[in-house]
Amino acid sequence: MMMNEGGLSQRANALINDQFLEKMDEVFFLLGAFYIGDYIPWLGGFDPQGLKKRIDDTFKVCDALWQTIIDDHKMKLEAASKAQSEGTSAPDTFQDIVDVLLTRSGDSGQHMEDTRIKALLHDMFFGGTEPIYVAIEWALSELVLNPHILEKAQAEIDTVVGRNRLVEESDLPDLPYLDAIVKETFRLHPPPFLIHLSSEDSEIQGFKIPTKTMLLVNVYAIHRDPEVYEKPSEFCPERFMVGSPKDVYGTHFDLLPFGSGRRGCPGKSLGLLLVVYTLAVFIQTCSFRLPGNMKPEDLDMEERYGTSTPRRTHLDIVLVPRLPKGVFPVDSQADTSLT
Ligand code: HEM
Questions:
Q1: Complex prediction ipTM
Q2: pTM
């Protein structure tokens, strides 16, 4: 079995390149698509929009990829165990998450079934990729439109980190303005809805909610409520620098990019760290500008509707390196276009 550097076999790579990448956008579209059966249940059975077929087709592609990854890991584990018992190789101490899920047994003493591992891979992959790049792309868009905010963030990083080394994870707690930029990005461009099912009959502010009612929490509207946020459509990180610091984990139900409480995002710490750190590196190492003669008002800031709100069109900006040669591991000091 031939593996590439990322540990994927040729079979898995072929699946990704030939089918999976194409289906990724489809997954996010389908997760947030308007489905008529939610409103007129008897129509759902006829699938008039053809959504069920699209879900089935997409599911087959994802399922085939997850199964291939699991099978590859099983083959690798078997080969390693055989080589060890024959004394032809030392034990391989590196284990990725699939190795761990395949080899560890739970409290019941049983190994996890493939179906459950596939469900976990699916959740982690789709939950843990799109919202991160969406947040970073929106933050860069807001910064390119607001150069005074970018300059202030660069001044903060220059003061705390300097220009002779790259920003590190341990610097992040000392960068409150960067933290405010990320909060403001999540406020204006959050996953628009939290979708939950009521587990028992309840009543909220006079509204009776029967068991198993699907509830949509309109995060988008909460984040733009003028009673909570002054001038809510303006990108203004300063609003998070005054008064008591707002928490990004929805503790007070006014900033909810990761939901809140028990059913909130389980990957929130990792997700937040990846967004803040990636942005810190961009801000420290580059200035950004719009390509050619493009004016700020020409930049498309429309959103695409779904379970998250990505940009309608990908961002196209020019990155201008700003650190001395050799600090950032890229040789060229020429402007670089990022799309
Ligand atoms: C910027 C990054 C991220 C954002 C904005 C985000 C946002 C969210 C939101 C809003 C929810 C729904 C919460 C609710 O309904 O109350 C959610 C659920 C979830 N997220 Fe994240 N997420 C991010 C990163 C991640 C990462 C890195 C992972 C995994 C590695 C992850 C895995 C999941 C999973 C598995 C769920 C479903 C949880 C459940 O149904 O109980 N997310 N996320």
A1: 0.98
A2: 0.84
